[in-house]
Amino acid sequence: NSTVAIRISQYAAARGLRVLSLVRRRGPRDLEALGASAVLETELTPDLDAAVKGATGGAGLRAVIDGVGGPAFSALARRLQLGGRAVIYGGLHPEPFQLHAYDVLLKTIDITSYIYRYFFKPPGDEDVAYLQQLFAVSSHLNIQAPVAGHHPLSDFRAAIDETLRRPEQGKRFFRMAPA
Question: pLDDT (tens digit, 9 = 90+) per residue, 94-112?
């Protein structure tokens, strides 16, 4: 999801981290202005592993946050530094990612999943300090969340079709008629 990736890039850049952003193809947004240190287009990059190696000066990646999965995640995970961490929050690619056990074991990398933690259960008392810290850090950032449109619920097919066809345009929201 490009909106999530942009928010992560903005947050990471504000914390002084270098962000390497992978996209299928460049869209109208200036990803460097939104926090990315470098952008790689996977449709134009035949050897993603070599491209990541070049973009990092051979140093590799400290962390990977992936919302797609598939072969690109495999290449990124292989470029993780010793003790690196990968977080998967989506699986949009139809192919599974593939890693050899040694890709994980020899570099002691950590691969973990992320699910929308508060989707099913609201934050509890134990979450208050963490959420306050997150809000404090984020409150001064100019985080941009692009909105592609508002649709009546009856227009759900068109909204979903447009989201799948042009996800880079942003989120689409539904208007609910009052009961």
Answer: 899 999 999 999 999 999 8
